[in-house]
Specification:
Blueprint (H helix, E strand, L loop, with lengths): L5 H7 L2 H13 L3 E4 L6 H16 L5 E4 L17 E2 L4 H10 L2 E5 L9 H9 L3 E6 L10 E4 L6 H10 L9 H14 L10 H12 L4 H9 L4 H13 L1 E4 L4 E6 L1 H6 L10 H4 L8 E7 L4 E7 L5 H9 L2 E2 L3 E6 L3 H12 L9
Parallel strand pairs: 1-2, 1-4, 2-3, 4-5, 5-6, 8-9
Antiparallel strand pairs: 7-8, 9-10, 10-12, 11-12
Helix pairs in contact: 3-6, 3-7, 4-5, 6-7, 7-8, 7-9
The structure holds guanosine-5'-monophosphate (5GP) and manganese (II) ion.
Length: about 350
């Protein structure tokens, strides 16, 4: 993504806005941090870095995850204190109802927290803060830290903390959280980080004792045998290449998932392989879940998968990485995707 120009950085990291943020946090008696459904490394890093910091300030927020987080992130600081709403639905709803301040991290609209939490969040009268890097955040927040011009929500949180009077509390645990967020949202520094500011922030994280090699191993070299075989199966048996559209896709049925004892997070990263093929500019992963077909979209260059996701599947995200849910059957969803591709034959030829 682009680098933060000085003007933009001044607007997003306006001192008085940062002061307002911390004064809200410090005066809050029931602070809730909400993550998006299927939380990834960035969302977890963002939420947990804040939790570690706030606890040092004497505020103990409840971090809510709509559903399970991936097991390869369970080593992260305070992850064992996360309230999983799909397991403790009433407790999560009550926490939201009782909250006086709610911080949404790494998502731009409450429906991204899933159908169980969407209404409680919408109905809540808490002061609502968004910290996020997706386009077009909803209008119902009271305080915005929102820009697409950063690698990740975690990097943005590091910028906020660094520009606050609380940077003296910053420590290795927080640095590790932020590092996980930047590393995972940039595909280990391969996209969305073509600027110096991300690397400057990472250099500062290293000074707090982050072991980048160890974190990479914990996150990426932690596959179960079943997960590795699901990847093999996806590439060998379920990858469809459409050279005429410079596109490819992988589709995984419930049976594919069951045969590989699917756990949350096991499909993470699979979508990227479809884009690693020479001449392919657009790829998708379709995963048949309990009640929905989960769609992940990735592209190279100027092909805007956020627009594609919005137009055809009511989803969204970023220009090169987006997602959506389809309520059609798997077969119908694939058919719809293949039909939609026809519109983009020229756009994809680059
Ligand atoms: P992933 O494919 O990794 O699930 O998602 C890629 C990107 O698209 C993420 O930045 C995510 O926040 C966004 N995204 C994923 N699913 C949805 C969705 O259903 N709606 C919207 N608006 N954004 C999504
Ligand atoms: Mn993110």
């Amino acid at each position: 993504m682009l680098f933060l120009s000085f003007n933009l950085k001044n607007i997003i990291l306006d001192k008085s806005k940062i002061e307002q943020f911390f004064s809200k946090v410090e005066s809050s008696s029931n602070l809730v941090i909400v993550m998006h459904k299927n939380p990834d490394g960035d969302c977890m890093g963002a939420a947990l870095a804040l939790k570690v910091l706030f606890q040092k300030l004497g505020v103990n927020p409840i971090v809510i995850s709509p559903n399970n987080f991936p097991s390869f992130l369970s080593w992260m600081p305070l992850s064992d204190e996360i309230l999983i709403a799909s397991k403790e639905k009433e407790k999560a709803k009550l926490a939201i109802a009782e909250a006086d301040t709610i911080i949404s991290v790494d998502f731009n609209a409450f429906h991204r927290a899933g159908s169980d939490l969407e209404n409680p969040l919408l109905e809540s009268e808490a002061y609502k803060i968004i910290i996020d890097h997706h386009i077009e955040p909803e209008k119902y927040f009271d305080l915005y830290f929102s820009t697409t011009q950063t690698s990740s929500t975690s990097e943005l949180i590091f910028d906020i903390i660094e520009n606050s009077q609380y940077f003296s509390h910053f420590n290795k645990e927080m640095a590790e959280c932020i590092y996980v967020g930047i590393m995972t949202d940039t595909g280990s520094f391969s996209y969305a980080c073509n600027n110096s500011s991300t690397y400057k922030s990472v250099a500062k994280l290293m000074e707090f004792g982050v072991d980048g090699e160890a974190i990479h191993r914990l996150v990426y070299d932690n596959y179960s045998f079943d997960r590795m075989r699901l990847l093999g199966h996806s590439l060998y048996n379920k990858l469809v290449v459409m050279p005429e559209y410079h596109a490819s896709y992988i589709w995984l049925s419930k049976e594919d998932l069951k045969n590989h004892k699917f756990q949350t997070g096991d499909a993470e990263g699979i979508v990227n392989y479809g884009l690693s093929i020479q001449g392919i500019n657009f790829t998708a992963l379709f995963t048949e879940r309990e009640d929905v077909i989960r769609i992940s979209l990735r592209s190279k260059g100027d092909f805007d998968v956020n627009k594609f996701a919005r137009k055809h599947f009511s989803g969204g995200g970023h220009i090169n990485a987006s997602g959506a849910d389809s309520h059609l059957t798997l077969e119908e969803t694939l058919q719809k995707f293949e039909n939609a591709l026809k519109e983009y034959k020229n756009d994809l030829n680059f």
